[in-house]
Design a protein that fits this description.
The structure holds two protein chains of two kinds. Chain A is mainly alpha-helical. Chain A contains seven helices and five strands; from the N terminus they run H-H-H-H-E-E-E-E-E-H-H-H. In chain B, helix 1 packs antiparallel against helix 2 and helix 6 crosses helix 9. The chains are: A mainly alpha, B alpha+beta.
Chain lengths: 221, 393
Amino acid sequence: MKRNIVATTALISSALVGLAAWFSSRDATGSPPGAASAAIRPSEVAKTALLASGTKEDETARAAVIARGEHLVLTAGCNDCHTPLKVGKNGPEPDMTRMLSGHPAKMPLPPPPAASMPWIVAAAATNTAWAGPWGVSFTSNLTPDKETGLGAWTKEEFVEAIKTGRHHGRGRPILPPMPIPAYRNFSEEELVAIFAYLGTIPPIQNRVPEPLPPPNLPKHG
Amino acid sequence: MNGRVNRAIETEPKRLPASSKRCPRAALAVACLASLIAAASLGGARGRHAEAVARVIPARQAQSSAPLSSGPCPGRLSETGLYVPGSTSQIAPGVLAYAPQYPLWSDGATKRRWVRLPPGTRIDASNPDEWQFPIGTRFWKEFSFGERTETRYLERVDDGSFRYASYVWDASGHDALLAPSAGLPATREIRPGVQHDVPSEGDCRACHEGRRSPVLGFGALQLSPDRDPLAPHREWPPSDGLDLAELVKRDLLYGLPASALTRPPRIVAPSGAARASAGYLFGNCAHCHNGSGPLASLGLDFDQSVQDDAQGYERMRGNVLGRPSRYRIPGEAQSVRVRANRPAQSALWFRMQSRFVAAQMPPLGTKLVDAQALTLIERWIATDRRASTVSTH
């Protein structure tokens, strides 16, 4: 009973902290909630809420897993392709208001340039759309948005997707330039940590376009 | 269909997950095998693959009764118990042929299937939708494109799990050799510019471990004597083979509800096309798209239940008709899985007719569109109506 009261109080406190962070993060331009704030990093809010329940040992263990996942995401370069680039004062820089949300759905995109050997791959300026012999692929939304991101995925699906190179672990191939040959060497523990961390970042609704086939794809019937 | 046999070898080593049952004790052997095969393939000559494999895998006497439920997979198909010792054409005693009424589309391959139960054992059909197979049960499925190309092997091993292997027929047709766990692409040209790939262990698991039981195409509905006359690529049951009644007659199965024999399972649907469509989707899609496996959260269930056959078609129809699709047909802001009476505007039909790797359904195991099934699905969608009478077809 006492433990439940403590846990509930912690949860309510975290929610109040989260609301405060949400209000303080919006600027004059109306940036969406979850935009990077100098006062509180968005992931800290989600982490706090996540860790509010359970024993102190559980909290410590989960915090370690999430921290590990964050480290892996940062070192594996996920933001390089899954966070759109924008042009800042010093040239291209990741748009962290769209952190890991993939190719912007509403971005108008002309057809890719024709390939000419040896230049057979082209990338959009955002680094989120890639054209090559496979067609055109768009980097996916890794945020925990339930409709457009990984919010409805299970950690098993995520682990299997990376291990097998297939969507949901058994579906369509995950297209280049996703470095599946390298990432499939992550251990299951590492992939679980990555997934846990991704669950703490701000959900961003962004329905990434479907991949496009290469021109002159044979219709095998 | 005759085809030129190619031996392009995949050299990328594949890390097997801990739960893999693709002959785990042979993982190191097949990795070495893959390297040797890669070296052997550089010359590109026919038969060199087989020669390289033969050097690595010690020749063993074929033993049809040898226990295979532990240890590595045999290096040759002739050693798995399918054939009489010394033969790769005469089926061994106790190995029984069968043919599902809704076969899986495999790019037009001619297929033969067999099962062997350990002597004295029976299948537990107490749950008619999820049969339990004895330890040591073996299945084989042979794929031919004019010539025997590949035979796949499935066995229930000692710990109750299943293991998978593929055997690739050599150029002489005398035997088939164990393929690497990473699979073997481009083993035979099945149409100009289209090659047959032997699946990897991961591909096997992707399909076979997407639902309750890894055994596909062998169950009460697939072996029902009430066979669907409109099923695409309809196969006749082998004259001396198994169906549901024969399994019971030979005492190879127990626990099946009596109603399954007095009223053989069939999909209850309002028309022949509806029945055949539901059956096709069951046989080709339900191993991933069902209500109990890893993809159950997608809410796309093509499974059929012999315990609930009156509802199966309507449940399947309800999963797709007017339901939003996560996949969007090019040019559509939002697609639906099946748009009433409009096949070309249905994501289901669109993905079936696509062979773009990122759009096609199924996502693996086929490179050619199933034209016959596509026509059936078009007809079904175009003429769909709610179930009101039992199909008389």
